[in-house]
Automatic annotation (TrEMBL):
Residues 71-252 form the IclR-ED domain. It comes from Streptomyces albiaxialis. Keywords: DNA-binding, Transcription, Transcription regulation. This is IclR family transcriptional regulator. SMART domains: HTH_ICLR (SM00346). InterPro entries: GAF-like_dom_sf, HTH_MetabolicPath_Reg, Tscrpt_reg_IclR_C, Tscrpt_reg_IclR_N, WH-like_DNA-bd_sf, WH_DNA-bd_sf.
Length: 252
């Protein structure tokens, strides 16, 4: 049974009402929010862009409508059972390791960093180690680039307001312009690579996981020693893309 708040905070109430509007409308326009909340269009726009800044909403560049953002998708996953997601991912991570003989990870994007949330280690004597719980600069990792490629240009620039980027090895992109060019390649190939950009002698390939609504929820990555993994990038790219697509179909 719904219980009314004794002292409702208007701004929080409005934010909640906007998010709940997505139950009936998969895409919200400024005019929709203005009419629903009884506020000026300028106020509605500020509310939407504030939620967008927190990744709770995402604006479609063409339609200008606002739909569920990656943080909202992650929140839904957490509420409905993160264990279920990790169990689903675990099976595919194990299959990735079996198919590629390299270490596989599940990662999410937070701001300008990637977070390793699950992984399965290769049985090779020389291999990439597990990094569950660790963070790293998104622009210097395969999973980070795969997820950054999902962002609209204005959101990418909000996260990277400066022209120069910091983090990673000397092989990592060091300017926002170079990153934008790299992300365009990711969109063309369908997967991202890390060629000794996060660590020396480490190569990785990653693909975005999208749920049934097409929202990016995370990325699957396969990594290994540069000499071995670097020689089979296309094979790794094919394997990780198929696994990410399969995992996405299992997410509501």
């Amino acid at each position: 049974m719904a219980v009314s708040a004794a002292y409702p905070v208007e701004s929080i109430d409005n934010a909640a009402r906007i998010l709940l509007m997505l139950v009936e409308k998969p895409s919200l326009r400024v005019s929709d929010v203005s009419a629903e909340l009884g506020v000026a269009r300028s106020t509605a726009h500020r509310m939407l862009t504030t939620l967008q800044a927190r990744d709770l909403l995402r604006q479609d560049v063409q339609t200008k409508g606002y739909g569920p953002g990656p943080a909202l998708a992650r929140l839904g996953i957490a509420v409905m059972g993160a264990v279920s997601l990790r169990d689903e991912a675990r099976l595919l991570l194990e299959k990735l390791v079996e198919d590629t003989s390299e270490t596989a990870h599940l990662l999410v994007l937070e701001g300008t960093e990637t977070v390793f949330i699950e992984g399965v280690e290769s049985q090779q004597v020389i291999r990439a180690g597990l990094r569950t719980g660790q963070r790293g600069p998104a622009h210097a990792s395969a999973a980070g680039k795969a997820l950054l490629a999902e962002l609209p240009p204005e959101e990418l620039r909000r996260r990277y307001p400066g022209a120069r980027l910091r983090g990673g090895t000397e092989r990592a992109v060091s300017t926002r312009r170079a990153l934008e060019a790299e992300l365009e390649k990711v969109r063309e190939t369908g997967y991202a690579t890390n060629l000794e950009e996060s660590e020396q002698d480490l190569c990785a390939v990653a693909a975005t996981i999208r749920n049934r609504q097409g929202v990016a929820c995370g990325a699957l990555s396969v990594s290994g020693p540069a000499r071995r993994a670097g020689a089979k990038l296309a094979q790794l790219g094919d394997a990780v893309t198929k696994a990410a697509t399969e995992l996405g179909t299992r997410l509501s």
